C-alpha cells in the first residue's frame, strides 16, 4: 500500500470572457517509489519545495514525476526533479532517453504493485490517470479527465474546460469511476466515488 497526499487542491475560475484563474491539483505518493503527480505552474516551485519538506522529502528523493497531460499548469516544475524518470502523458523519459510504451493500445504502465499509469484520453489524446492502492482504497489521480466533483452532474464544466475527444472522455470517466474509490480531479478537491456517481457517469456514455 502507498500513502497519497494531495499537496494542493486545483481550482479554476472564469474571471471574464478573456481571462480565467486556474492551477492544477498536485499530489505526492510515498511507497516503494516516491512520486509527484502534476507539478502546477512554473511560478509554484517554492510552494512545492516547501510542501515536500513537510513530508521530509527533497526533490532529489522523487523517483517519478507524472504529468497527467502536457498543459502548462501540470508540468511547470518538472525540472525540479532531475533524478526522476518523467512521464508526461504518453511520453516516458529520463534525460535524453525515451522509453517506448504502447499507451496508444490501451496498455497500462506499471511502476510497482501499488501504482500504475492508465491511458485515459479525452481532455487531450494522450491523457493518463495514476491509479494508487492505498489503505482507503484505490485513488485515481485523474488530472483533467475530471475537472472537479461538480462536473459529474454538470458535464458542461469539463466540456467547457476543453476536450479533444468528448466521447472518449465520457467513456474513460466512467471506466475510472468503476475502478476507483476516490478521485483527485485536475481542478478541485479529492472526492469519494459513490454508486450514484458511477451510475450517473455510465448513463452519460
What does this structure look like?
It is found in: Cytoplasm, Cytosol. It comes from Diatraea saccharalis. Homodimer. It holds the Pfam family Lactamase_B. This protein has five helices and 15 strands. The chain is of the alpha+beta class. The protein has a single domain, classed as Metallo-beta-lactamase, Chain A. The mean pLDDT is 96.
Outline the fold blueprint.
Layout: E1 3-8, E2 11-14, E3 20-23, E4 26-30, E5 35-37, H1 45-53, E6 64-67, H2 72-75, E7 85-88, E8 91-94, E9 97-99, E10 109-112, E11 115-119, E12 128-134, E13 137-143, H3 156-160, H4 166-179, E14 182-185, E15 191-192, H5 195-203
Main location: cytoplasm
Subunit structure: Homodimer.
Protein name: Metallo-beta-lactamase domain-containing protein 1
Summarize it.
With 205 residues, the chain is of the alpha+beta class. The protein has 5 helices and 15 strands.
Features:
20% helix, RibonucZ/Hydroxyglut_hydro, seven-stranded mixed sheet, Metallo-beta-lactamase, Chain A, Metallo-beta-lactamase domain-containing protein 1, alpha+beta, globular, 205 residues
**How many domains make up the coordinates?**
1
Largest sheet: 7 strands, mixed
- Listing every helix as H and every strand as E from the N terminus to the C terminus, the arrangement reads EEEEEHEHEEEEEEEHHEEH
Mean pLDDT: 96
**CATH C-level class:** Alpha Beta
Number of helices: 5
Strand arrangement, major sheet: 1-4-5-6-7-8-9
Tell me the overall shape. globular
Q: How large, in whole angstroms, is the Cα Rg?
A: 16 Å
Amino- and carboxy-terminal Cα gap: 32 Å
Helix content: 10-25%
Oligomer: single chain
**Beta-strand proportion:** 25-35%
Which structural class fits the helix and strand makeup?
A: alpha+beta
* Topology-level CATH name: Metallo-beta-lactamase, Chain A
Uncertain runs with pLDDT below 50, 5 residues or more?
A: none
CATH superfamily descriptor: Ribonuclease Z/Hydroxyacylglutathione hydrolase-like
Give the total of beta strands.
15
CATH architectural category: 4-Layer Sandwich
Pfam families: Lactamase_B
Protein name: Metallo-beta-lactamase domain-containing protein 1
Main location: cytoplasm
Organism: Diatraea saccharalis
Amino acid at each position: 500500500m502507498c500513502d497519497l497526499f494531495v499537496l494542493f487542491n486545483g481550482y479554476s475560475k472564469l474571471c471574464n470572457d478573456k481571462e480565467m484563474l486556474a492551477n492544477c491539483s498536485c499530489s505526492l505518493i510515498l511507497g516503494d517509489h516516491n512520486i509527484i503527480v502534476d507539478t502546477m505552474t512554473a511560478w509554484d516551485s517554492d510552494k512545492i519545495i516547501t510542501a515536500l519538506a513537510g513530508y521530509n522529502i527533497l526533490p532529489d528523493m522523487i523517483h517519478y514525476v507524472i504529468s497527467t497531460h502536457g498543459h502548462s499548469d501540470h508540468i511547470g516544475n518538472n525540472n525540479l526533479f532531475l533524478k526522476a524518470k518523467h512521464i508526461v502523458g504518453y511520453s516516458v523519459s529520463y534525460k535524453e532517453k525515451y522509453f517506448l510504451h504502447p499507451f496508444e493500445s490501451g496498455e497500462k504502465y506499471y511502476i510497482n504493485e501499488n501504482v500504475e499509469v492508465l491511458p485515459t484520453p479525452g481532455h487531450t489524446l494522450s491523457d493518463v490517470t495514476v491509479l494508487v492502492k492505498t489503505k482507503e482504497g484505490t485513488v485515481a489521480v485523474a488530472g483533467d479527465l475530471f475537472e472537479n466533483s461538480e462536473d459529474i452532474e454538470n458535464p458542461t464544466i469539463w466540456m467547457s474546460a476543453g476536450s479533444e475527444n468528448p466521447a472518449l472522455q465520457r467513456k474513460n470517466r466512467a471506466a475510472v469511476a468503476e475502478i476507483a474509490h476516490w478521485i483527485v480531479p485536475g481542478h478541485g478537491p479529492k472526492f469519494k466515488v459513490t454508486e450514484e456517481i458511477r451510475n450517473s457517469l455510465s448513463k452519460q456514455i
